Amino acid sequence: MRAQVGILGAGPAGLLLSHLLHLEGIDAVVLETRDRSHVERRVRAGVCEQPTVDLLREVGLAERLDREGLPHHGFSLRFDREDHRIPLTELTGRSITVYGQQEVVKDLVAARLAAGGGVEFGVADVALHDVDGDRPRITYVDASGEQRELVCDVIAGCDGFHGVSRASIPAGALRTIEHVYPFAWLGVLAKTPPSHEELIYANHERGFALHSMRSPEVTRLYLQVDPAEDVSLWPDERIWEELDLRLAVDGGFALREGPIVEKGITPMRSFVTEPMRHGRLFLAGDAAHIVPPTGAKGMNLAVADVRVLSRALSALLKRGDEALVESYSDTCLQRVWRAEHFSYLMTTMLHRQPGVDDFQHRLQLSQLRYTATSTAAATSLAENYVGLPL
Ligand code: FAS
Ligand code: PHB
After folding, report:
1. How far apart are the C-alpha atoms of 57 and 61, rounded to whole Å?
2. Catalytic annotation, pick one of 12, 22, 51, 72
3. Which of 12, 222, 293, 351 is catalytic?
4. Could you give all domains of the chain from N- to C-terminal order, each with its CATH number?
5. How much distance in Å is there from the Cα of 160 to the middle of ligand 1?
6. Single pTM value for the model
7. Which of 36, 127, 166, 274 has the fewest CB within 10 Å, making it most exposed?
């Protein structure tokens, strides 16, 4: 088989890249190891920053997002049993939209299939070949068990942190920079209306907690836990009790409990691959970088990467112009490192780092108070949170 672009991974990065290339008249095939229902059910990110929403609207993918998404104009920092609202739209003129990543993925899959786009689910034994040459190849076993080969002009590695793309680059050709945090997130999805109309990020002596949502009927909540925590030790009662303690605030706050339909533990790390390209293989999204989810940047960075990549591949494949592919990695890494810093700041400001001394703890509380009371500090946080212009 032949395609101009072979894309590994049917997550937000791979699917959106396939759609953007389709709009440029470039044929791409998406290869995905999991089946469609798994990919569409996987609960992950919840926040679309303004540039992501703008892009999805621009390319005709925001009809359901505009109907079902929840526009948010602020969020609360909760500490010392007090709420401090960060008025995002008042400070920046922009907002965020709460719309689950799985909904974005469903919309992308539907658009690709409706356009006759090649998305192959359930493939296996994916391997990349000749990525240094001008005819890179992907070999794989398709869902029916047939051995296949896809010859491409270019390969896009959108196969996430655990995919094969990054591992297909010779070790000496790239460097990875990693920072592992001494805690993880226990995330829960509960069939109960949100307890507040906006997100609440809480710094509590027992640890961080986050109140988010997916719809007027579904709440998404997170608790800071130890990285080695065993989720089986967290029955629903214990989760609600801990959330109640960490989200407590003077003046009353009624946490609406309900059946927990999903729970899981996500480790926290910052990770960046430099460069995000090797020969005709381009990395995008989690295949290239990971941010701690505190800043709600993971999926949004994946979107930003493929917006740059789609324009670069269009120039290369339609006009033979290599300038944008040459600058692809540097262009993306500027935004990546901005998001890494912002996510690090949000994470260290809000989580109780085990074993830190009183000095670090007092600095953290001072940073929270300054952010909550200074327009300049709140504006800096807000402009990063809603998404700097692409
Ligand atoms: P993805 O990981 O979404 O997609 C990669 C795809 O490639 C997957 O479908 C995978 O099955 C497939 N694949 C893997 N190996 C392959 C191979 N060899 N060949 C073909 N396909 C292959 N971000 C937030 O902003 N907020 C959050 O709350 C949040 N929570 C998260 C929770 C978890 C458990 C995880 C893992 C991530 C979370 N993230 C969150 C980050 C997440 O949203 C990512 O940033 C986002 O999924 C990135 O999208 P992709 O780069 O497309 O990678
Ligand atoms: C979510 O709703 O999943 C979510 C929201 C904000 C974050 C992280 C996750 O910072």
Report:
1. 6
2. 72
3. 293
4. 5-70+98-177+269-346 (3.50.50.60)
5. 5
6. 0.97
7. 127
